[in-house]
Amino acid sequence: MIKSVIAASAMLVASTAAASVYNESIDGDLSGDRFNPTLISVDNGLNTVTMQVVDSALPGGDRDYFTFSIGAGQSIDSIVVTDAFNPAGGFDSVAFVGLAFDSIFDFDPDAFTGPGLEGFVLTDMSVVGTESIGALSGGLTSLGAGDYSFWVQQTGEDITELSLAINVVPSPSAMGVLALGGLAAVRRRR
């Protein structure tokens, strides 16, 4: 039984490995349809999504929408804009990143009204590398099981490339069950 506890602990440590779950330059353009965002898969550990946006407010401009589900026994403990820059060397590298607690984005970006926008960040240098979950979620410090969607846009003429690191961890209740199971296994062995 101790081997089982050690194996479970090793799996938890291994789950912190970084993973690029979606990169537009490799996996193709993220959806521009807020009612049909690109579905991506996330798992325990650091999940990185990298995209480029430009001229989002213009007809034919590039808005990116993606969605994912956090399963029972999981939570998101951090969302960090890890990078935001202009790959062409231009002046403007600030993008808008918004979060919805749903598998679609009800909020209308053209009218800038409606339900669904929980919070947002602008990716200026003061945000890059800092924890943004509170600003994106309306003040929460973690996000539990459920569906989440992101809206990313750049309203200027310059391209912005940015990466979001979304850290998924076992929820505290799942960790408690694992710990209790480990203690019971050790106790039975004695």
How would you sum up this structure in a few lines?
21% of the residues lie in helices and 34% in strands. By secondary structure, it is of the alpha+beta class. It has a 5-stranded mixed beta sheet with strand order 2-4-8-6-7. A 4-stranded mixed beta sheet has the order 1-3-9-5.
Ordered list of secondary-structure elements with their pairings:
Layout: H1 2-14, E1 18-23, H2 24-27, E2 38-39, E3 45-53, E4 63-70, E5 74-85, E6 96-100, E7 119-122, H3 133-137, E8 146-153, E9 160-170, H4 172-189
Parallel strand pairs: 1-3, 2-4
Antiparallel strand pairs: 3-9, 4-8, 5-9, 6-7, 6-8
Helix pairs in contact: 1-4
Q: Features of this protein?
A:
190 residues; alpha+beta; five-stranded mixed β-sheet; four-stranded mixed β-sheet; 34% strand; globular
Describe the protein's architecture and organization.
The chain is α+β, with helices and mostly antiparallel strands. The protein has one domain (2-189). Helices cover 21% and strands 34% of the residues. It has helices at 2-14, 24-27, 133-137, 172-189; strands spanning 18-23, 38-39, 45-53, 63-70, 74-85, 96-100, 119-122, 146-153, 160-170.
